[in-house]
Amino acid sequence: MVYGWNKHEVASVEGDPVIIKADGFPTYHLANVVDDHFMEISHVLRGTEWLVSTSKHLLLYKALGWKPPQFGHLPLLLNKDGSKLSKRQGDIFIEQFAKSGHLPEALLDIITNCGSGFAENRMGRKLEELIAEFDVSRIITHSSLLDLTKLPEFNRIHLAQQLEDDIKRQMVVQQLQSHVEEIYHGKLLDHDVLRKEYVENVLLLRKGHINFLKDLVSPSYSYLWVRPSVSRKELQKLSSELDKIGGLVLGLLQSQNIAMPTDVLNKELKNLQEQVKETKYSTMMKLLRLALSGQEQGPSVAEMMISLGPKEVCARIETVLKS
């Protein structure tokens, strides 16, 4: 398979190959033949570096009177610059990827995506799809370049897929709860942020926006778990109408009996801005974002408000107004 028939004269090149070492321990060449036979392996797919050894293995099968499996040799995966992947590169170990928060599904997807064996390359394929779509006749013989700079994007897609699955989503919720407790231990003044409903809502709102689950416990998202320290003076630098803006937002949230979706809340905030004389909408959003998160950048103010919930948003605004 893949490379077609290859000929390698074992006797003329290697002479009499060693299959049992002096200490009685078998070499890999004998061990893999015996192991594959008794495991009833029908197909062997391995790297091209084993292509020259295949003749030796076929001779061993013949000598033992066993039917050999079909062999297919796969082109190598190379670094983006064309150099060979090596275990000397500490960051290519599976353990390192797992520690960094990469999902197994994302690693499998990027490897199969940069290789061959499929009618088309597309991101986000699940294992079942890879199995169904794989065609050994489509494997090409030249090496493939593995661009790991694209791995975060693959991870983002597969993390979003997990959040779309009810069972897997609950596992992700538990993982995030553990991360929050680990990172913000001792800083959590309100343990309601660890409630399943709250954490699940945060995940669904940020689905498709984060590459790794650990992103949600980074400083950029600290406002989700701990209250920011923002002074009234900081906000008044943005607008002298701080009290009016705060009062309007409090009135909006306290008058709603049901949660508003993001698009509806955005419209309501724009309507509130029309009641303010001197503060532009963009400035009003900066003010509210700073009051709620202590940060100048981040998700939309509407999303922040929905993530935190009306009770917490009101508490933060009231705290700033009273400071």
Describe the overall structure.
The chain has 323 residues and is mainly α. It is 49% helix and 5% strand. It has 15 helices and four strands. The chain has helices spanning 10-14, 28-38, 54-64, 94-99, 104-114, 127-133, 151-164, 166-183, 196-206, 232-236, 242-254, 262-273, 281-293, 301-308, 310-322, and strands at 43-47, 70-74, 77-79, 144-146. The strands form two sheets. A two-stranded parallel sheet has the order 1-2. Strand 1, helix 3 and strand 2 (70-74) form a beta-alpha-beta unit. Helix 11 (242-254) crosses helix 12, helix 11 (242-254) packs antiparallel against helix 15 (310-322) and helix 12 packs across helix 14. The mean pLDDT is 91.
Structural class designation: mainly alpha
Secondary-structure element order, N to C: HHEHEEHHHEHHHHHHHHH
Q: DSSP strand (E) fraction?
A: under 5%
Uncertain runs are none
The termini sit apart by: 74 Å
Strand order in the largest sheet: 1-2
Q: What composes the largest sheet?
A: 2 strands, parallel
The number of E-state strands comes to 4
Based on Cα principal axes, name the global outline: elongated
Mean pLDDT: 91
Radius of gyration based on Cα positions: 30 Å
Give the oligomer, counting copies of the same chain as homo and different chains as hetero.
single chain
